[in-house]
Amino acid sequence: MNDPGTIAIIMACQDHPVMRNLYIGANDLTVACIPSLCTYVQGSTHLEVLDLSYNFIGRGINTLLHAISKSQTIQVLNLAFNAGTESCLGAVKHVLMKPMKTDDDPDPIPSAPNLIELNLEGNQLPPEAG
Q1: Band of pLDDT at residue 31, cut at 50, 70 and 90
Q2: Residue 95: left (phi > 0), alpha (psi -120 to 50), or beta?
Q3: Residue 59 pLDDT > 60, yes or no?
């Protein structure tokens, strides 16, 4: 289901004025849909729940997590069973860690400040990821 139609559906969601939950798990999505998902996540002012579980995003998780780190609304992110590997650990840290204050930015915007649930179950992360 990773055809232009799937990407069109994701982009159509962008225009929905109050969509808060997007469940598109188990749809055979691959890294090809990541640019559209990132655009959607970055432009959404209402999205609270994003479920992409049981797809084949793999290394695209990195790019998606960086987009999600800029979201001020996402509370729940489910990326379970997506063939994520050790390479996505840096992006996971980016989403979960609070930014450091600097002279140039004494009050930095936290990464994904409203994120309260992150599910990475079933990915190929090393034991030290825990």
Answers
A1: very high
A2: alpha
A3: yes
